[in-house]
Amino acid sequence: MGKIFLGPAGNCITAMDKGTLASIKHLVNLKLNAQEIEFVRSIYLKEKSAREVGELAKELKIRLSVHAPYFINLASESKQVIEASKRMIVESAEIGEFAGADAVAIHAGYYSKQGREKTYEMIKNAFIEIIDKLKEGGVKNIKLGIETMGKESQFGSLDEIIKMCKEVKHLIPYVDWAHIFVRNNGKIDYGEIFDKLKQLNLDHINSHFEGVKYNLETKKFVDVHVPIDNHPPFEPLAKEILKRKVDITIISESPILEKDSLKMKKVFESNGYKFS
Fold it and tell me: What's the pTM?
């Protein structure tokens, strides 16, 4: 049986005290076992505090990941933006490594005017440089996760990401199930996604889950996060994970964070999984 890790994207909203340390302690009370540290607006931890967070998480058996800033675009027309993006990824990975995080979620960029192939090459070359830089700095445990993206303008279809992960060592897919659902016009086949991921021989899958909004005017789902309900449906994913014995982290990017992690936990438990 694979091990399942559940927790929020960012600090718990129901914790009595603020801060990452308080959130990690609160997760134990909730009987959740994961948290993604959000560097989406700024990389707010320094080495000392990251190590403190990591030590506490290890002691309490909370699996950590991090999310790099949103401002990243490795296929920008501006060289300055590309260089700044690389620096943000390197810094996120370094701080994540100090905290003992297993992966960093990255929004890699937008398609350039030169087309999809050129975008792919630009992003691939940038990641090769980033990985070299991290190796030079002694960062070797944390994995760089390219997130599957919901908008058509964003680099990050599942197929593109799998292809890049096969070509560049130390890259993994960071699967956002709702983004795949949005990008595929409100359809998702969990079994097919797991079948595609098999070729990467991953020992663990890092992922996000949230509900997404339906736009009544355009009659399409959009990448606006809402609490989990049926769009996309969660229970079929839980059943597929249990059937396949997948080792996975599912981070709640719902606006109600750990409340929806607990909802996911109930679904797993009602399907026979026992959290240790």
Answer: 0.96
4-270 under CATH 3.20.20.100, yes or no: no
* CA–CA dist 1, 44 (Å, integer): 36
- CA distance between the termini of the chain: 12
Per-residue pLDDT reduced to its tens digit, 107-120: 999 998 889 999 99
Tens of pLDDT along 120-176?
999 999 999 999 999 999 999 999 999 999 999 999 999 999 999 999 999 999 999
With beta carbons less than 8 A apart as the criterion, state whether 86 and 74 touch: yes
CA 247 to chain centre: 15
Contact 249, 17 (CB under 8 A): no
Residue type, position 266, single letter: K
3-state per-residue secondary structure call for the chain: CCCEEEEEECCCCCCCCCCHHHHHHHHHHHCCCEEEEECCCCCCCCHHHHHHHHHHHHHCCCEEEEECCCCCCCCCCCHHHHHHHHHHHHHHHHHHHHCCCCEEEECCCECCCCCHHHHHHHHHHHHHHHHHHHHHCCCCCCEEEEECCCCCCECCCHHHHHHHHHHCCCEEEEEEHHHHHHHCCCCCCHHHHHHHHHHHCCCCEEEEECEEEEECCCCEEEEEEECCCECCECHHHHHHHHHHCCCEEEEECCCCCHHHHHHHHHHHHHCCCCCC
Cβ neighbour number for residue 118 with a 10 Å cutoff:
13
Sheet containing 34-38, strands listed edge to edge, beginning at the edge strand earlier in sequence: 4-8, 248-252, 205-209, 171-176, 143-147, 103-106, 63-67, 34-38
